[in-house]
TrEMBL record:
<dbReference type="InterPro" id="IPR024227">
    <property type="entry name" value="DUF3795"/>
</dbReference>
<dbReference type="Pfam" id="PF12675">
    <property type="entry name" value="DUF3795"/>
</dbReference>
<protein>
    <recommendedName>
        <fullName>DUF3795 domain-containing protein</fullName>
    </recommendedName>
</protein>
Amino acid sequence: MENHAIPEKAAVCGLYCGACGIFLATQSNDMEKLAQYAVRLNQPVEETRCLGCRSNTKTAWCRACKMVSCAAGKGVDFCGSCNEYPCEALKDFQAMMPHRAGLWESQARIAEAGPEVWMREMEIHFACPACGKANTSYDIKCPSCGNIPGNHFAGKHSAMIKEYLSKLSKS
């Protein structure tokens, strides 16, 4: 593994855990939102809490992440450090959901500036530009102040997010 401190909210795949609804609900102890996520994921609320992919408190999904075990087996901290990057598994993972749209940019930035700098940038990137509140990747509108977009990521990827949320609400 590389030689630096890695924030708990920096996933090996390049996701920023601080923009995850489950992470934010866990941090604020929002039991109503955690219960909603638990139902959606078909798992108990206790299995739904998460404080980041590198923390000891992870959802069942994050605990079973194949990319974490793959990276550990290859001795890398991030997929972008692997000789096989980007592999088919990561490409498939990235293409599945809108909140993964920035993985390639994140991996490049982590390699260029390091995980600590990237983390500080992500905290700004996923905060509401009007009120500064941390928001999820899917918050097109800030739940706190109503600003549109809810964060820079949601503004950049709003068409993809709206399409995904529309399909989700119909299912």
